[in-house]
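Bench notes, afternoon.
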Amino acid sequence: MIRRPLGANIKKKKVSKKEESIKEFILSWNFEFPLDFWWRQQHNTSFNSSFHRESNMLDVLIEVEEFILLRESIKLRKQRSKDNSEMIMSGKWLKQKSKKKSKQDDDFNFDNLDISKL
């Protein structure tokens, strides 16, 4: 018995030149304007729909920048929150370094102590 690969009996549909040129146009558009593809995915809109045609690239660029800034801001806040929780759990916030005072500093502060302000 001879085994044929899957799909061997399926005949390929002939693609017209018009369909091929449409596919080439869509692909070239997406390669030339990758932000537009991202924007259409975000808004769940199809290529060349009325909503897509009404948009402009400046609005798309602003929306992309806003998305990137928010994503970076959220990432930074999570990292800071993680760092703060690690600091609290480790007790490092209790172990703040203090300046070592010399005997001369103590003597100076004692001599200049103004009791009337207390």
